[in-house]
């Protein structure tokens, strides 16, 4: 495919996926905030304990065959049927495994209520088995319109189901039913728009290359999951469900923009990088452009959240969540850098170098759990500081192994993101000055609104002076949508 045609598809994909994800983000934020006000920290703590294991098994549910299908240069109909059969078998096995291990997991945490929660959540694996392959084929063909609308519908269904059950006083079960509603909607919608009736096959010898690639991807994801979920596991075990509730809400609010933005970019970037394997110089260029855009958008949002958290959390979530303020601030400050890091995975995978990403992830997965464990001596604030201190050090060391593959230097990446960071620092200073000047007795909603307006104005003004190129790139992307 010609590079210009690929660029057009990428921009169209960003338009559809970005637009629907933006709407979904607004709905998700609104429903999440309402649900947090209705539920107590222990409900989020219980769900956090359950999702540690369900998310772990979710990484195995496709055995890396989704990206293998997307990345394969040639793919026959018989191969697709065999992938479908493999995914169905794996999904059914994982549902059974979670159901059988539910009492053991509940015993590990000393929470008998986890047993029933895990029984219910095991159903999501059966649903995943129904849509993994059709979804991969849509992404392989970069058919983002229907896919993005289905995912928007799933977010809406999950969010409003959770909110409805929370209002009904269902506690943690509101989170469980909301999760399942998301998966049900996604499974039905993906199959409707894919319009393919896939008869499963079970001749695994035909798809050995796909299984091999999927094995690398799965190993990478498992190690990534271990370090990504290690903080929740350690906090839940060492500090208890209430502390985990505060920490999980802090992390959820801080990382939500990253999860949504990275979900958009990863879905589009990986197929795009896979298409330009024959043009290595383009991979590095696309990565830098993605890093610039992510920093330009992520810095004001995440650093802005950190700056206004002392005013926003008690006002929006309620006084009972006061303990979540400082962890939220610390984690939010680090998220833009983590978003930049997360872009490396689709770039390296699309380039065919999953092995490099795997080595990087192994090093990270060794350091971070140790940092989290040390941090528990200072409670959830200490665990949050592990993200702020240990993770950036590991990241900059790992850049030395990944950037040469993309024919880039650390200097290239720093130049791509530094201007957004300078504008962000100016924004933080402006918000701090405004908070100091505002009268003590001012209405809290007026105060919060004023701080947001001041921060947005400062970031936009400084960006116009020192980072106009990133602003023009963003405007060009919006116009082409």
List key phrases describing it.
single chain, 481 residues, mainly alpha, 85% helix, 0% strand, globular
Q: Secondary-structure map with pairings?
A:
Layout: H1 3-38, H2 41-60, H3 65-71, H4 77-109, H5 114-121, H6 123-140, H7 144-167, H8 172-194, H9 208-239, H10 241-275, H11 280-317, H12 325-342, H13 344-350, H14 354-375, H15 379-402, H16 410-437, H17 444-466, H18 468-480
Helix pairs in contact: 1-7, 1-10, 2-4, 2-5, 2-8, 2-9, 2-10, 3-6, 3-9, 4-5, 4-6, 6-8, 7-8, 9-10, 9-14, 10-11, 10-12, 10-13, 11-12, 11-16, 11-17, 12-15, 14-15, 16-17
Tell me the number of strands.
0
* Outline type: globular
CA-atom Rg in angstroms: 22 Å
Helix % is over 70%
**Low-pLDDT residue intervals, each spanning 5 or more residues:** 1-16
Strand content: under 5%
What number of structural domains do the residues give?
A: 2
Cα(first) to Cα(last) distance is 21 Å
Structural class: mainly alpha
Average the pLDDT over all residues and give the rounded result. Answer: 78
- Total helical segments: 18
């Amino acid at each position: 495919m010609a590079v210009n045609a690929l660029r057009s598809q990428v921009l169209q994909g960003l338009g559809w996926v970005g637009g629907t994800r933006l709407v979904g983000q607004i709905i998700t934020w609104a429903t999440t905030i309402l649900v947090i006000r209705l539920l107590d920290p222990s409900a989020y703590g219980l769900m956090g304990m359950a999702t540690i294991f369900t998310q772990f098994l979710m990484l195995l549910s496709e055995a890396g065959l989704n990206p293998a299908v997307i990345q394969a240069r040639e793919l026959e109909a018989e191969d697709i049927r065999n992938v479908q059969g493999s995914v169905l078998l794996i999904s059914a096995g994982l549902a059974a495994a979670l159901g059988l291990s539910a009492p053991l997991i509940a015993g590990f945490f000393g929470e008998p209520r986890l047993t029933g929660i895990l029984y219910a959540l095991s159903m999501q694996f059966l649903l995943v088995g129904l849509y993994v392959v059709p979804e991969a084929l849509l992404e392989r063909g970069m058919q983002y319109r229907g896919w993005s609308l289905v995912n928007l519908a799933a977010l809406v269904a999950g969010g409003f189901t959770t909110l409805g059950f929370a209002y009904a006083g269902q506690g943690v079960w509101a989170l469980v039913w909301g999760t399942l509603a998301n998966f049900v909607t996604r499974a039905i919608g993906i199959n409707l728009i894919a319009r393919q009736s896939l008869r499963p096959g079970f001749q695994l010898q035909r798809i050995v290359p796909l299984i091999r690639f999927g094995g690398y991807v799965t190993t990478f994801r498992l190690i990534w999951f271990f370090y990504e979920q290690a903080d929740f596991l350690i906090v839940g075990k060492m500090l208890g469900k209430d502390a985990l509730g505060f920490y999980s809400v802090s992390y959820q609010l801080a990382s939500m923009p990253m999860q949504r933005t990275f979900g958009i970019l990863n879905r589009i970037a990986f197929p795009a990088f896979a298409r330009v394997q024959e043009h290595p110089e383009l991979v590095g260029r696309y990565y830098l452009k993605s890093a610039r855009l992510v920093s330009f958008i992520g810095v004001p949002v995440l650093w802005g959240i950190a700056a206004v958290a002392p005013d926003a959390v008690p006002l929006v979530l309620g006084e009972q969540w006061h303990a979540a303020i400082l962890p939220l601030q610390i984690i939010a400050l680090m998220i833009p850098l983590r978003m930049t890091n997360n872009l490396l995975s689709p770039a390296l995978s699309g380039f065919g170098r999953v092995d490099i990403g795997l080595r990087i992830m192994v090093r990270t997965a060794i350091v971070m759990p140790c940092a989290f464990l040390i941090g528990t001596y200072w409670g959830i604030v200490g665990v949050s500081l592990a993200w702020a201190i240990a993770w950036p050090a590991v990241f900059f060391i790992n850049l030395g192994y990944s950037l040469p593959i993309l024919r880039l230097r650390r200097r290239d990446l720093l130049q791509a993101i530094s201007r957004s960071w300078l504008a962000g620092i100016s924004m933080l200073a402006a918000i701090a000055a405004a908070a100091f000047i505002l009268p003590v007795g001012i209405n809290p909603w007026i105060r919060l609104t004023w701080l947001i307006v001041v921060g947005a104005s400062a970031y936009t003004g400084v960006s116009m002076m020192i980072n106009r190129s990133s602003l023009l790139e963003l405007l060009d992307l919006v116009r082409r949508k």
